[in-house]
């Protein structure tokens, strides 16, 4: 699988498709197209000068391989950020088509979760114009983008990621992810997503869904919550005040949905809405655990922000922001691919132990630094020696997984905290 990615990185087709202009990369320079891609994949979180020194030492070409920070800044302008989307597409296609026995499914469904967050950006005039300004509780002005991803929670791959202005709604972004879905997908959403129109789009595309809904979603949901029934199939209609002039449906178009009541303890209840209507095929007792699997996308955001440190951007233009963001998504998928090859060995390691041990995600990304370059650098090798080295290192840094741990939420804990600005004159030195 990694051989196909390496071949893609060094292919003329990739360069031709994702260079900004036909005039770019026509001469043989130190910073050729694939070398620039590998450099941007190598977690550019420190000062660019230090990152360049580190990277050129990996090339083992002596002083002839060195380039300046200014040269890199100019060269990266010639590459479209979507190149990393294409590399992820190659990886995912290889996994989902050539690795069928290893694909984890739930009742035959690929289990996907969609969720959004905000990514804090450097404060520049260009980024303000594109993404707008936001304020927190202390009136501090920030530049933030709305981020949305669709994530395979069982296989731990991110299928698609978007950065957009915060004024763009989560539902709108979620619908753009549907082009990455297939007929056997079950898509899970939190309670901010459901609406008649949103559900109708899934019906039209023939995608199954599971959504948490607020009790105030409709009178039907309120009545169902009060009835204390566990499950009920009902028909929903567009809201009375919904504007339908530009829609393909009328107010008399019902959608059959199934409401499921989940008891959370301490008198708390959540209501789920799903297209899985058959209670014999999909018993009500399965839905609590099924919806909880959505937590995988929350865990992914923790990795993206706190382990991959995606908000520590290597540049200040929108193009460099998108390059860093999309490169981080691709690297995350590479890390998932390598870790997945350890599953059988981890089962043997965990046999008879009190806790199941898993790879330390934070350390695994640190170990991938530099090795992600050597993994794809040499066209004459398949990178298997690097993969085996990483697997051995990952096994030496396992941590126990302790289930059923709970802590009380304190939503106001950070309410008075001021989000630190991303400085433009200093990066981490180590």
From TrEMBL:
Composition skew (Basic residues), residue ranges: 412-424
GO terms for MF: DNA binding; transposase activity
GO aspect biological process, one term: DNA transposition
Ranges where the record places region Disordered: 398-430
Boundaries of every Transposase IS4-like domain copy: 108-333
NCBIfam families in the cross-refs: transpos_IS4_1
Name listed for the protein in its UniProt record: IS4 family transposase
Species the sequence originates in: Aequorivita ciconiae
Upper taxonomic lineage: Bacteria, Pseudomonadati, Bacteroidota, Flavobacteriia, Flavobacteriales
